[in-house]
Amino acid sequence: MVVGGVGERDGFGGYRSQLVGELSAKGIKDLAVLRAISQVPRHIFVPEAVRHRAYEDSALPIGGGQTISQPWVHARSLELARLTGRERVLEVGTGSGYQTALLSLCADQVFSIERLPALAQQARDVLALLGTRNTSIMLGDGTLGWRPYSPYDAIIVSAASPEVPQPLVEQLAPGGRLIVPLGDRDQQVLAVCTKGPDGHVSCQTVSDVRFVPLIGQFGFPGEAG
Ligand code: SAM
After folding, report:
1. CA 198–ligand 1 middle distance (angstroms)
2. How far is the CA of 121 from the centre of ligand 1 (A)?
3. What pLDDT does 6 receive?
4. Which of 57, 107, 113, 145 is an S-S bond match for 171, by CB 3.0 to 4.6 Å?
5. Cα 100 to Cα 69: distance, rounded to the nearest angstrom
């Protein structure tokens, strides 16, 4: 992943290495995930005004009342998905597109859904700038999934849901892993759900997290809902 002025020699490599060190110290062990974080230029996924904070381990505003998640949350979600590079992955809540870029390095094909048009377009533009070829972004309600490309080996939901959206359960492959923050609008736990051969899904909670709400038919109602 190298684009003129963006890439290994973009002047931010030292900050990325520091971030990788911080994430390892916080318990992230998956080397493919750490390698992806060392390669993807997070600063180009955030607005100019917060670019100087791009390599802090914190969530940052990206416009439309949304945030790019904390790098530790991305790293942990990716680690929990146990990707080997061969998977077809669905991401719900593209946001900035940063996690989409990380996924593009850790999986084979990435399908991502965002409900806000401006963010979906911005993410497409940045991913194109990086020369990413294995990602597709759709504008829509991600709680419905993206059925034509299902089943998915892994599904990562990047917004807080009151429960696991049923269409996502249906679109998960047997043996697949679904990572989703579950809870109310203010506070959630990150859950890892696995689908058995009988189609039954069982979930385990991993850690407390705080995400923006998943707004949609199988999530929270929107302003008018
Ligand atoms: N991984 C992204 C990042 O770091 O940039 C996460 C962005 S933010 C925490 C969650 C995103 O989910 C927001 O961009 C929001 O618009 C989007 N979102 C919320 N409900 C959605 C839905 N039903 N379908 C698709 N996207 C949704």
Report:
1. 30
2. 13
3. 56
4. 145
5. 12
* pLDDT value for 8: 61
Please state, in angstroms and rounded to a whole number, the distance separating the CA atoms of residues 212 and 225: 16
Query: Which residue minimizes the CA distance to atom 18 of ligand 1?
Result: 93
- Report d(CA 98, CA 76) in Å as an integer: 14
* Residue 225: pLDDT over 80: no
User: For residue 135, which of 116, 151, 113 has the smallest C-alpha distance?
Assistant: 113
- First CA to last CA distance, the chain: 41
Domain spanning 59-209, CATH architecture: 3-Layer(aba) Sandwich (3.40)
Entry pTM: 0.95
Ligand 1: distance of its center to the CA of 114 in Å? 6
Domain ranges, ordered by start, for the chain: 59-209
Comparing CA positions, the residue from 216, 201, 223, 200 lying closest to residue 162 is 216
Q: Does the beta carbon of 100 sit less than 6 angstroms from any atom of ligand 1?
A: no
The answer to whether the CB of 119 is under 6 A from ligand 1 is yes
CA distances from 43 to 123, 126, 167, 220 (A): 13, 11, 34, 30
Going by C-alpha positions, the residue among 93, 3, 91, 87 that lies closest to residue 43 is 3
Structure tokens at 91: 């991401």
> String of b and e for 88-102 (b: at least 16 CB within 10 Å)?
bbbbbbbbbbbbbbb
